[in-house]
Amino acid sequence: MFLAGDIGGTKTVLALYRLHEGALVCEHEASYPSSEYAQFKDIIELFLGAHHPPLHGASFGVAGPVVERRCNTTNLPWVLDECELEARLDCPVRLLNDLEAAALGMLHLPAEQRIALSNARSNDDGMKAVIAAGTGLGEALLFWDGARYHAQPTEGGHCSFAPTTADEDALLDYMRNQLGGHVSVERVLSGPGLFNIWRFLRDTGRGKVDASVLQQIETSADPSAEIAARALAGSDVVCIHALDMFAHIYGSEAANLALKSLAIGGVLIGGGIAPKILPVLQRGAFMDGFLNKGRFRGLLETIPVEVVLEPRAPLIGAAHMARSLAA
Asked: Which residue segments constitute the domains of the chain, with CATH numbers given?
């Protein structure tokens, strides 16, 4: 048996896998609201119970940098330590950056779990870039060693937001005033980021916001989901504008990652947001942002861009890493 986990700022998902005819099969899976637990070990104990089967390996994708076998989670007050987890679980443990886990999981997904946004043909052994907007913004790379792919985590989501339009210039200025300094791309390209874009449009008079819509968004438990739903339904012009800006920024940042890594093998868009706003991504704003790189537009036109539909990619990647620990 192998234990796998996907640890995020919003939720933590744990799963037990077993080997069946050489393939990993999920035996049990459960999801927990992360913020309701003081420590990660509380969730593990709840999930495994008092009498869990012996584990041969465990791996967890974590939203945050893993340095010297430890991770101080970015959006939670948790510290995860491989040595402590190995003592508790009595098996080898590997902590992965959440996008590192997602990238590994994407290697094991069938073709029908991907939707193409571009017409470029895939290169099976070129560098691949992985970008995923969710509670935060994650970025990772998949590089080919001549025999197989390896995942390289990054903290690229915390690099500076680079606007490419007049509205985005104004958004950067607005967010700099809101934050009192540095504006990472995650601040505008994430779940909370969509709400920040909408607030920018509201506060700078870029479209009239209906009073009832204003109240429903501002009092919603998830204002970004409310904005996206109204944009997808075509029922509010400011929400439509906000989501179109979001898609354009998403495409631009995906291209930044592709250029920095020369990802001729393709760009994979993961995370929980992309599948939910797929019609908007397919309308063109994403690819407009992706290709708008001046002299390097021609190169970017040769790079395949795909949305990954499977939300469990980080969990699948962690499960395969856990299996490798028992080899």
From this structure: 2-105+312-325 (3.30.420.40), 111-309 (3.40.367.20)
Grouping H, G, I as helix, E, B as strand and the rest as coil, residue 250 is helix
| Sign of the dihedral through C-alpha 225, 226, 229, 231 | negative
Say if residues 4 and 319 touch (Cβ distance below 8 Å).
yes
Element (H, E) at 252: helix 237-261
Task: From 116, 47, 42, select the one nearest 307 (Cα to Cα).
Answer: 116
Q: Residue with structure tokens 């393939």?
A: 23
The dihedrals phi and psi of 229, each to the nearest 5 degrees, come to -60, -40
| pLDDT tens digits along 247-274 | 999 999 999 999 999 999 999 999 999 9
The whole-angstrom separation of Cα 148 and Cα 35 is 37
The C-alpha angle 110, 114, 119, rounded to 5 degrees, equals: 125
Chain-centre distance of CA 31, in angstroms? 17
Sequence-separated (6 or more) residues with CB below 8 Å from residue 295: none
Reported pTM: 0.92
Output 24-32 pairs: Cβ under 8 A, ≥24 positions apart. Answer: 24/316, 24/319, 24/320, 24/323, 26/319, 27/1, 29/315
| Structure tokens, 321 | 């890493």
pLDDT in tens, 101-151: 999 999 999 999 999 999 998 777 899 999 999 989 999 999 999 889 999
